[in-house]
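Section 5.1 Outputs to date
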Amino acid sequence: MTTTPSAEATDRKAGVTPILEARGLVKRYGHVTALAGSDFDLMPGEILAVIGDNGAGKSSLIKCLSGAVIPDEGEIRLDGQPIHMRTPIDARGYGIETVYQTLAVSPSLDIADNLYLGREPRAPGIMGTVFRKLDRGKMRAEAKQQMTELGIMTIQDISQQVESLSGGQRQGVAVARAAAFGSKVIILDEPTAALGVKESAHVLELILKVRDSGIPVILISHNMPHVFEVADRIHIHRLGKRIAVVTPKTHTMNEVVAIMTGATEPGAVGYDQVVKDAARKEPGHAAEALKTTKDG
């Protein structure tokens, strides 16, 4: 495996412990190896983009980190301590929340009900303990506060049904739910995939607000402009493992795509310049290196 000695190495030298890390993750489905000794590091207070071509294994990696899949080998650590997750509920218990591409919101319920879906607070006293009545006043008050803190109170009524919201607003509800209960890490799977330009910009702004609130974010996306707009670091996944870690400040979009697709291979001419040279203060261009690689 090859990684760049970029922000990751700098953070480790400075003694910063990754808030979420994985070492040597292996996941096999019969004869197919989805993860082949994959490593992962998420630093505190950052947005880490995870990118990779179709079939690279990034979905399996994220499923392992979110408790949806149990790896066959390897270790996952949270705040430096090993953790074992068998279900997404276990991940939630550790403060890891995931917003999937399908959003997993209930269109027929209102915003407050969706924010507390599966975690509804009971009314105080006998009405809650015996008759299991929900504390809807508390739910709506806290839901409104959460939406306001994230700057997404463009919604007129907190009690309106989610099916009446736009795509961007629905995404906002899902992210707000994750931010409300994700005390450690929030994982966002393709949050702008089905959105227009204006709504995508709003969601990206929302992601930055979540990061600024102190919660690190893992962003899975195929949209390179969006990745370069919000990501602090970029985890490049290929052939079941992490092939490089770069930053938007050290590498250009073309370089990142070249690494992701295998246009630059380990050992090839120009590979060191494109992948390992993460010490640059400004993005450089490896056009000549790539040309030499292809010509060779």
